[in-house]
Automatic annotation (TrEMBL):
The modification 4-aspartylphosphate is found at D81. This is LuxR family two component transcriptional regulator. One of its GO terms (biological process) is phosphorelay signal transduction system. Residues 179-244 form the HTH luxR-type domain. GO terms for molecular function: DNA binding. It comes from the Bacteria. Residues 28-146 form the Response regulatory domain. Residues 1-21 are annotated as: Disordered.
Length: 250
């Protein structure tokens, strides 16, 4: 990861100190990757933290669904590889996130940003994590996702979407689509905030652009997510691109 992307992550997401899931227990993490050495390395780092614990591992999507389905206490966060035998991470992510109390899914990808990452986010994943990211970045990502936020920093979102823009369908003017109908419920200010989100602006930067308090921006962002039915900031930005509200390069 480049220095600028790493710095943006720290500035936009923030490193939250979090001790477990609110009831004193650690955040329960599942590792899904067909490379055993990768899983072993992740487990070593995660289990070294007092507020995190690995509760399950699997080498492909089929095994992941089986293992996660029989856990006595569900996993909180799943680190999901994309390319695996039998069932890939995209299919497994889509099936996992259909459940009412679905775990948060973080897609594992390569430095070159796998072309399927955007599809995984649209399927319900809460972001992506580079496999060669520093250990502290992985730990921050797990805690951030567990808090309900996206792993991708706002300043990285636009770069990701523009890199993967060929995976998006052509924007449609059909106002009857669920995405357009949801977009129509936004106020002018909420649409303005969504556009700035899609352009990679952090809450602090949006507050400066609009001459309002950062707390006000957070309120607007929350309303945007609720009206669009988006799990997190990233999925809201995807809607902005899919509907043509924002165009790549604009």
């Amino acid at each position: 990861m480049s220095t600028s992307a790493h710095d943006a992550r720290g500035a936009d997401i923030g490193v939250r100190e979090h001790s477990g899931d609110g009831d004193g227990g650690p955040i329960r993490v599942a590792l899904i990757d067909d490379q055993q050495l990768v899983r072993a390395g992740f487990r070593m780092v995660i289990d070294s933290q007092p507020d995190l614990t690995v509760v399950a591992e699997a080498g492909d999507g089929v095994e992941a669904l089986r293992v996660l389905g029989v856990l006595p206490v569900p996993a909180d966060v799943v680190l999901m590889d994309v390319r695996m035998p039998r069932m890939d991470g995209l299919t497994a992510t889509a099936r996992l996130t259909q459940a009412p109390d679905a775990p948060r899914v973080v897609v594992l990808t390569t430095f070159d940003l796998d072309e399927y990452v955007l599809e995984a986010i649209r399927a319900g994943a809460s972001g992506f994590l580079l496999k060669d990211a520093p250990p502290e970045e992985m730990l921050t990502a797990i805690r951030t996702v567990h808090h309900g936020d996206a792993v991708i920093a706002p300043s990285s979102t636009r770069r990701l979407l523009e890199h993967l823009v060929t995976a998006l369908p052509e924007p449609t003017a059909d106002a009857s689509t669920p995405e357009h109908e949801a977009l129509a419920t936004l106020t002018d200010r909420e649409r303005e905030v969504l556009v700035l989100m899609a352009r990679g602006r952090s809450n602090t930067e949006i507050a400066s652009d609009l001459f309002v308090a950062e707390a006000t921006v957070k309120t607007h962002v929350g309303r945007v997510l609720a009206k669009l039915g988006a799990r997190d900031r990233v999925q809201a930005v995807v809607v902005a691109y899919e509907t043509g509200l924002v165009r790549p390069g604009a």
